[in-house]
Amino acid sequence: MAIAVWQVAIAGSRGLVPGPVAVVMAIGELARSGLLIRYIVASLFRVTWGYSMAVLVALPAGVFLGSSRRAEAALHPLMQWLRPISPLAWIPLAILWFGVGDLSAMFLIFMASLLPLTLATTRAVHEVDPVVLRAARNFGLPTRRLIPSVILPAILPQLVISMRISLGIAWLVVVAAEMIAVNSGLGFLIVDARNAGNRYDLVIAGMVLIGVIGLILDGMMRSLTRLDLIRWSTLDPNR
Amino acid sequence: MKVSFRDLTMRFGELDVLRDISLDVAEGEFVCILGPSGCGKSTLLNIAGGFLSPTEGSVTIDGEKVSGPDRRRIFVFQERGVFPWLSVEQNIGFGLFDVDPQERQRRIDHYVKLVGLSGFERAYPRELSGGMKQRVEVARALAVNPDVLYLDEPFGALDSITRLQMRSELLRIWQAERKTILFVTHDIEESVQLADRIVVMSARPGRIQTIVPVALPHPRDLSSPGYISIRDSIFGEIGLAHRV
Q1: Higher pLDDT, B139 or A231
Q2: In what helix (H) or strand (E) does residue B216 lie, and over which residues does it extend?
């Protein structure tokens, strides 16, 4: 329905916006030249690395900050100050440190997911019911088993939700990162198509692909919320 | 004496919570600590459990000073103390992490049966009613074979019918296992139904106002003259006319 309206509307737009037919043709053209798969893989590759590294750093950092009042008091102001800075503000430094290339793009994605995930993990640890921690102490659970046996399972439902949100942010940022720092990927496709001859059909094709893959990624993260491990939770997975 | 409180005083800053509490609890005895909200009875239980240190005085168990939580003395909370991510049998086995798997399973099976949860071994707490969750918690406590159980208004969140059932279950388990029980409640009827002795506490700062022995055999007849006279004497002690 929306697509039909789109097709009709562009008839009067004097070529300012390409129609759906043109966009589908453009995607076909990308597929034939092999760029479609190459660009999608390139973008997913950067997100996977940048995001996974962020998860690997944010989870331990968040658990640590959540369990240590002192560490949190020390780092809280820093994190609150960094929070409103767009991850894109790191672009100049990324290029300075990592040059123009994959590494810069991954660094931007890493920065974009790191802070929200760390803060969410810290908050989840704070919200663990103290009664549950007391019970664990009462049964003499050794301290080294407290995190794997009590804290991790307790925060897992909240964690999966936060991971889903921050993957969405990472996907937003990959496009911007590719516009500046690299010469492949879906973000690059959009800038390149404009620069190299105003191919707005390719621009829209890039946007459509980004949207579809974003939806698929989100769907995958959502299926995590149905894992047995967190089935006990009363949080709404579709929130 | 199993549990001894000696000249116990507790202050939180300026706030006087408990004053000069001295009490001896015998091995295998069922003692209810009864008092109005805010009288410090939960604080008293938390000190006995080793979760709080008293400002003055001490608690000893078998002559040994309490210095922290201990697996030989288990604290039972309202039902939200169960681990929601563990199934019924995993919850009951939680305190048995250093027991060999066969013995562990044997004890889990025993206590699942004792608290009447057969058939629910693999259920998760969110699938259970409040009363069933409370049974899981009691079973989890008993599974580590403690010598003292501390119960802090354990049935407070249950409906009144389930509460009555849970009381008789608890008595049955107590008679089978002979643990020393300290049971905090603000419910006069509950204390007369359960206890060997009732420690009546005053409003804050909490002191022991009187100790009422309940020499009625179990199961107790709730309409017998003996029951009613003890109940009424406690109503009188707390200063309530027994009328609504």
Answers
A1: B139
A2: none
Contact (Cβ atoms closer than 8 angstroms) between residue B111 and residue B103: no
Output A12 or B154, whichever has higher pLDDT: B154
CB B23 within 8 A of CB B209: no
Which one of B71, B83, B126 makes the best mutation probe of the A interface by having the most chain A beta carbons within 10 Å? Answer: B83
Most B CBs within 10 A among A132, A133, A137, A138, hence the mutation to make, goes to: A138
Q: Which residues of A touch B (CB under 8 A)?
A: 129, 131-132, 134-135, 137-141, 145, 149-150, 153-154, 156, 229-234
Q: What is the pLDDT of residue B208?
A: 92
B124: nearest CA in chain A? Answer: A232
Tokens 């491990």: give the residue.
A229
Reading the block at residue B169, the tokens are 């279950």
Residues of B in Cβ contact (< 8 Å) with A158: none
- Tell which residue, B215, B123, B138, has the closest CA to residue B169: B138
Chain A residues in contact with B70 by the CB 8 A cut-off are 138, 140
Helix, coil or strand: residue B98: coil
Beta-strand (E) ranges in B154-238? Answer: 180-185, 197-201, 208-213
In chain B, beta strands by DSSP E: 3-12, 15-25, 30-34, 56-61, 64-65, 73-76, 148-152, 180-185, 197-201, 208-213
Out of A129, A149, A232, name the one closest to residue B125 (CB).
A232
Tell me which chain B residue has its CA closest to the CA of residue A141: B95
Contacts of B120 by beta carbon, 8 Å cutoff, 6+ apart = B88, B112, B128, B132
Whether residue B6 has pLDDT greater than 90: yes
CA B189 – CA B185 distance, rounded (Å): 10
* Angle (CA) B161 B109 B82, round 5°: 55
User: pTM (2 decimals)?
Assistant: 0.80
For each of chain A's 239 residues, which pLDDT tens digit applies?
Answer: 777 777 776 666 656 677 788 888 888 888 888 888 889 999 999 999 999 999 999 999 999 999 888 888 888 888 888 888 888 888 889 889 988 888 889 999 999 999 999 999 999 999 998 889 999 999 988 888 888 899 999 999 889 889 999 999 899 888 888 887 678 888 888 888 888 777 888 888 888 899 999 999 999 888 887 776 666 666 554 44
Length of chain B: 244
CB-based contacts of A218: which residues, under 8 Å, 6+ apart? Answer: A164, A167, A168
**Across all residues in chain B, what is the average pLDDT?**
89
Which pLDDT value is given to residue A237?
46
Cβ-count burial A14-30 (b if 16+ within 10 Å, e if not): eeeebbbebbeebbeeb
